[in-house]
């Protein structure tokens, strides 16, 4: 057992982080917020070129030939960078929908009564009859409400969403700690006050617990492990983003700071790929599985 | 990332499992939780059998992964817990193995492994709990001995211990972290008085220890004089890092029992309770992964666990309390019956956020050592 990133996995993660730092930095994020309904197609293709969508396609089919562990690392980075777009839906469509793997085609999916990025997508999976736009809470995720029964979620979609949540949890913890080291009140950095320090420590503990749950689920692909990863990652992202906002004080409540964007996206993701209840029930059933 | 074990490790697991299958049915009955001498004998007897079967050295000589498999399999099989051997096997022993001289290792480690000697931990004092470095128990040199005077508190298993890992102040004029020394104290030395303290669970598992001019040979010092704080950090990293690993497996077993019990008594039909148990399933799965993660990190860095132990300890101590709170919900009115094992476990789980460093102290460690926040007061 070596439950750690391999050198290749580390290199992949660092490569994606660098790519996103180049192609989707703080300035690009701001631009996206200013013009929220457009999806940056050039960026989407750059992701395609980097293998973001074709990551798990076999090499024989023109893919990268990697597995779920690599996919969660890449999606963690996407979450960390607040990358907008129907990333999981397009990733899952690679190989099945022409152009998805290359980042030429933007694919979205109807999911639990909602559809993200409906007007920007080239291909929609699921029935969108009667779709009505709503004013999305997250400025970077346009949403439609879609009537009809929800299909059972694909466990891989659940896991990739959890990986994005993990990225958010890690990022907001970093932001909070950075701010707590720099911002001074009462003549000292606010991070020297225990009430603030403990808030940050709690964020780290939740993020690291989510991390091992997400990574392990990627290795085992076990549905109960995936459900566990989703619960812990949702909690780490949402609770973490709220605490990050608190650590930022009044500044955290402004449109200018990026904290609210993390919180709003984290909330959007909790609605994806089946809800929390579903994961909890799956894990409850798992406890008594095999006993009549 | 790899969660599979090597053929050698799987081999070890299979042999251990087979041995447990034959050894466990022949165990004597468990003594009453209040009968400490009987509990000591029971715990030492189990350790002796592990030793004779060749499994004792797993605590120091084996790789961290092998130790993890050992803890996993023994817990899964419902084998006795380390009990009175807790301090010796899980943190005094590893400290001596890491910091002691060859002679010290030869003197102290084999009797721990053979189940002959019990250790206790004399760190906390009435005026030095969370602020451990404020300890005041004094030791001064007299020939080839230290003479120790002071008092310790909350010393688990002190009544039945043969040895105590003792922290003393050898230089009162130095800054408080600098003048501390780590000693191995034989508990039968004249001048030691042990006064049992009753815990909220009703048992007397810890005690006050009074030391009145107790003579300890200089040769019993582990590490240098006045360098005891550094040695203590090694002890605490074992105490927080790996000592609880097996318990996670036990908690997962309890959780399954809870679910089955709830199905029997109809509580399972309550969706709120069911979902709560589902969430605890997520929690303990993740705690097991955290254990594997920390073990892999320790293996890569060569032994002593790092600040990751505090992350684990924080999360685990709270999860354990939530587990037994959920148990109370499953039990219904029986939750007030002390003869139900989960009731006692619920009471003792209250100590987990206090013992081995409170949750507040662990949060501060995470903030300062992992997040690099400034030291606060
Ligand atoms: C079951 C049990 C077994 C134990 N066994 C042993 C043993 O074998 N050997 C041994 O040496 N010790 C043992 N202990 C002692 C244990 O390590 C201490 O109880 C613990 O470190 C807390 O110290 P204290 O009890 O003095 O509480 P205090 O330090 O007085 O703390 C009281 C409260 O104040 C908070 N607090 C204190 N300082 C700070 C701070 N700087 N920042 C924020 N909050 C703070 C604490 O978190 C706590 O909530 C045991 C304790 C228990 C409960």
Short description:
Chain A: Its cofactor is FAD. Chain A: Keywords: FAD, Flavoprotein, Oxidoreductase. The complex is a heterodimer of chains A (292) and B (377). By secondary structure, chain A is an alpha+beta fold.
Account of the protein in words:
The complex is a heterodimer of chains A (292) and B (377). The mean pLDDT of chain A is 95. A five-stranded mixed sheet of chain A has the order 3-1-2-5-4, with helices on one face. In chain A, strands 6-7 form a two-stranded antiparallel ribbon. Chain A has eleven helices and seven strands. Chain A has helices spanning 7-23, 26-34, 41-49, 68-81, 87-93, 155-182, 194-220, 223-247, 249-252, 259-270, 276-288, and strands at 107-111, 114-116, 123-125, 132-134, 143-145, 184-185, 188-189. In chain B, strand 2 (138-142) and strand 3 form a beta hairpin. The two termini of chain B are 39 Å apart. Chain B is built from eleven helices and eight strands. Chain B is 49% helix and 15% strand. The interface between A and B is large, with 54 and 56 residues. The structure holds flavin-adenine dinucleotide.
Q: What is the mean predicted local confidence, pLDDT of chain B?
A: 93
Main sheet strand line-up of chain B: 1-4-5-8
The biggest sheet of chain B amounts to: 4 strands, mixed
Q: How many distinct helices of chain B?
A: 11
Radius of gyration of chain B: 21 Å
Unreliable sequence segments of chain B = none
**Largest interface, and how many residues on either side?**
A-B, 54 and 56 residues
Could you tell me the strand content of chain B as a percent range? 5-15%
Mean pLDDT score of chain A: 95
- The residue fraction in helices of chain B comes out at 40-55%
Our measurement of the CA-to-CA distance between the termini of chain A, rounded to an integer number of angstroms, reads 33 Å
User: How much helical structure, as a percent, in the residues of chain A?
Assistant: 55-70%
Shape of chain B: globular
Distance between the termini of chain B: 39 Å
Low-confidence stretches of chain A: none
Structural class of chain B: alpha+beta
The coarse silhouette of chain A is globular
Structural class of chain A: alpha+beta
What's the arrangement of strands in the largest beta sheet of chain A? 3-1-2-5-4
**Please, what is the oligomeric state?**
heterodimer
Question: What is the element string of chain A, with H for helices and E for strands?
Answer: HHHHHEEEEEHEEHHHHH
């Amino acid at each position: 057992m070596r439950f750690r990133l391999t050198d290749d996995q580390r290199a992949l993660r660092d490569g994606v982080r660098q790519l996103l730092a180049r192609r989707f930095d703080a300035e690009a994020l701001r631009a996206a917020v200013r013009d929220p309904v457009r999806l940056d197609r050039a960026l989407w293709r750059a992701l395609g070129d980097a293998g973001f969508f074709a990551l798990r396609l076999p090499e024989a089919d023109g893919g990268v030939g990697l597995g779920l562990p690599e996919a969660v690392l890449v999606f963690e980075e996407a979450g960390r960078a607040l990358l907008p777009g129907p990333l999981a839906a397009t990733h899952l469509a690679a190989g099945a929908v022409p152009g998805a793997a290359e980042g030429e085609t933007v694919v979205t999916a109807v999911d639990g009564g909602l559809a993200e990025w409906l007007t920007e997508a080239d291909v929609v999976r699921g029935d969108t009859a009667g779709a009505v736009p709503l004013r999305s809470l997250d400025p970077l995720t346009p949403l439609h409400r879609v009537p009809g029964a929800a299909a059972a979620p694909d466990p891989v979609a659940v896991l990739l969403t959890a990986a994005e949540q993990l990225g958010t949890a890690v990022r907001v913890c970093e932001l909070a700690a950075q701010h707590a080291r720099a911002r001074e009140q009462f003549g000292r950095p606010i991070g020297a006050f225990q009430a603030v320090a403990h808030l940050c420590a709690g964020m780290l503990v939740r993020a690291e617990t989510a991390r091992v749950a997400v990574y392990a689920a990627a290795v085992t692909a076990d549905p109960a492990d995936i459900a566990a990863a989703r619960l812990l990652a949702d909690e780490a992202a949402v609770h973490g983003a709220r605490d990050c906002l608190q650590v930022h004080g009044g500044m955290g409540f402004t449109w200018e700071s990026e904290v609210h964007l993390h919180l709003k996206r984290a909330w959007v993701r909790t609605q994806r790929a089946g809800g929390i209840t579903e994961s909890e029930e799956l894990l409850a059933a798992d406890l008594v599985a095999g006993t009549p | 990332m790899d969660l599979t074990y090597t053929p050698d490790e799987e081999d070890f697991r299979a042999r251990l499992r087979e041995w447990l299958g034959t050894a466990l049915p022949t165990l004597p009955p468990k003594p009453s939780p209040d009968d400490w001498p009987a509990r000591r004998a029971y715990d030492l007897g189990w350790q002796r059998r592990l030793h004779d079967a060749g499994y004792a050295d797993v605590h120091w000589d084996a790789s961290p992964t092998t130790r993890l498999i050992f803890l996993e399999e023994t817990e899964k099989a419902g084998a006795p817990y380390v009990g009175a051997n807790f301090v010796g096997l899980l943190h005094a022993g590893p400290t001596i193995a890491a910091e002691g001289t060859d002679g010290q290792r030869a003197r102290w480690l084999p009797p721990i492994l053979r189940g002959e000697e019990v250790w206790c931990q004399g760190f906390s004092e009435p005026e030095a709990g969370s602020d451990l470095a404020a300890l005041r128990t004094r030791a001064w040199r007299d020939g080839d001995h230290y003479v120790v005077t002071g008092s310790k508190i909350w010393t688990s298993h002190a009544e039945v211990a043969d040895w105590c890992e003792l922290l003393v102040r050898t230089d009162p004029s130095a800054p408080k972290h600098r003048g501390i020394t780590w000693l191995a104290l034989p508990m039968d030395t004249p001048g030691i008085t042990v006064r049992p303290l009753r815990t909220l669970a009703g048992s007397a598992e810890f005690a006050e220890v009074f030391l009145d001019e107790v003579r300890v040979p200089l040769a019993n010092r582990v590490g240098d004089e006045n360098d005891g704080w550094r040695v203590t950090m090694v002890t605490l990293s074992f105490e927080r890092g790996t000592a609880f690993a097996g318990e996670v497996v036990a908690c997962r077993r309890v959780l399954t029992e809870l679910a089955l019990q709830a199905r029997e008594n109809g509580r399972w039909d309550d969706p709120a309770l069911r979902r709560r148990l589902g969430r605890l399933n997520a929690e303990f799965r993740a705690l097991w992964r955290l254990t594997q993660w920390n073990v892999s990190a320790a293996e890569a860095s060569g032994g002593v666990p790092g600040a990751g132990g505090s992350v684990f300890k924080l999360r685990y101590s709270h999860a354990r309390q939530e587990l037994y709170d959920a148990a109370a919900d499953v039990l219904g009115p029986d939750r007030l019956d002390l003869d139900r094992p989960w009731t006692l476990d619920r009471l003792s789980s209250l100590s987990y956020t206090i013992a081995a460093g409170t949750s507040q102290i662990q949060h501060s460690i995470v903030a300062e050592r992992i997040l690099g926040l400034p030291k606060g007061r």
